[in-house]
Amino acid sequence: MALIGNVRRGIENPNEDISAGPRALGFLDAFSIGIGGIVGGGIFATLGLATVESRGATFISFLIGGVVALLTAYSYVKLSIAFPSKGGTVTFINRAFGPGLFSGSLNTLLVMSYVVLLAVYAYAFANYAAATFFPKDDYAFWHRVLLTGVMAALALVNFAGPALVEKSEGFFNFSKLLILLAFVVAGLAASGLTFGRLGPSEWVPVPQMVAAGMLVFLSYEGFELIANVSDQVKNRERNLPLAYYGSVATAMVFYTLIIIVVLGHMTFEGVEASKGYTLSAAAEIFMGRFGFVLLAVGAILATASAINAGLFGASKLPFMLAKAHEAQEVYETEVKGRYPVGLFVITALVLLIANFLNLHSLSAATSTGFILIFLMVNVACARLAAVTGARKWVCIAGAAVCAVALLILLVETGRNPENRKDLWFIGGLMVLPVVYQAVYR
Prior knowledge:
By secondary structure, this protein is an all-alpha fold. It is built from 18 helices and no strands. Helix 1 (3-12) packs antiparallel against helix 8 (162-189). The longest helix has 37 residues, at 278-314. The two termini are 41 Å apart.
């Protein structure tokens, strides 16, 4: 797999056109980047949270998130074809809004959203590993040790070089998808499967469905990774739309099947009791202890894969911001194709956040950050419609849907006394990028 090698090549030689070269990416390459970025860490981390919030309508919540992602994917398709670049979202925002405090703040928010997303994955990794391999009485201790350990270990992998990341990613991605597929097939074939908990009588009100869908929206954000290799995709007009829409649609189907299996075998009380490791608990019902361990291994591989790839991409964002004069020059420090300052800062921030916040707060903040970014990408597409050939009304519709969904998420979060404190962290995540840019400038 030469995907990460292509990403590195594009960063080191931003003006080199390799879209038609021997290492150019086809549809399957771009699709695998999208589906690998979407399916995996997010579903393991957030399924329990969504089910507690949405009950029998959990599959609808995930489908709502998918629809928001599909609408935004339209803007990404048009922008990626018109402005193919390793910069992806950063390039689109700067093209549409120009240099300045506004663009710099949005791009810094993108970096911070990735930081919190990595914290979600590290938290989920520790959830599954601690619950599976260590005594319950020592769960809190091992959770903290495992969370810190996986971040430190994968930061070292990233520092060791892109080649090592590439080799480990191929193994991670194949394994996690195979285990999830086995879970779905075994769950649908097992006796005792029932659809009663998926019926309308178990649905929550529509605003709660939407809020739950936005709480787990981070489970879809990975499709935007395709934008970062858009300059390396051959036959872009054909392959990029298929890759974007195909990866999101495939994830929607896959997530729906996973939810059917979970709620087909588990009670709502069972999900709530095991919301940190729901897929393992569900697998234990129809596959025994072997199933519990198998899905825990799948979760460990999936979240480790997400951290591994996330660190690889996120550590380069400060470099791109520094090149655009939106961050300090120190982030341009390069050591044999690696960017140690960005990698160190991001890893340290992840450890700080993940050790002091719970999974609900992390998920809500991550999804809020990405929804806001995607809202502005839709606005960017509308502003650049004359250049991209996009239908402006589709971009505006995508922006409007993001705005409404974000508003519902914030309102529903504020209405729940248990989650109201999340608003403080979300507010801080929104304000910090503006403060950083103002001080930097």
